[in-house]
Design goal:
With about 190 residues, the chain is α+β, with helices and mostly antiparallel strands. The chain is about 25% helix and about 25% strand. The chain has 2 domains: about 35 residues, no CATH class; about 130 residues, 2,3-Dihydroxybiphenyl 1,2-Dioxygenase, domain 1. The protein starts with 7 loop residues before the first helix and ends with a strand. It binds cobalt (II) ion.
Amino acid sequence: MQGGHTGGAGASACQPSGPRGYPVAAPMESIDVWWSVDWSGAGWQAEAPAPPVFPPSIDHLGIAVHDLAASIAFYQSLGLAVTHRETVLTEKVDVAMLPAGDSRIELLAPTAPDSPIARFLEKRGPGLHHIALRVPDLNAAVSRLQASGARLLNEPRTGAGGHTYVFVHPASTGGVLLELIQENTK
Ligand code: CO
């Protein structure tokens, strides 16, 4: 009497199932998730631990000025203080750095008529010259930019402060000259 219940009647009452009970027909969105999993890593580790991320931050705003002393006096009147002065011979520019919170104002005045800052002043007048983002890994950032076709203005260089930097053309950045820098920690 009991034997009749162990055959096909019982199986047909169940949902169709594949090996190990996985549904035979998965919804499309599940398949999409499945395909998006990167199997190149270690076995079944669908969600590999992400590398530590240090998002870029604004390191400084570079402002081109005719008269460095007058500009310094203006920002000092707002309570900012000069923490670094430097003449960068290769760029023919006098630089003053004034920290403002976690960022800095970088005042730039030309030391010669053929300085890039002199040419900027001639064409545009005093004003915002560039924005500098501090990135955790400059070489990685440069690789990504090159892969995406962004226009870099120089190979990574080491500046006088010991940091490495590149400039990205305004055509690639939304119209502003962008400096990327990486602090070289000892
Ligand atoms: Co700068």
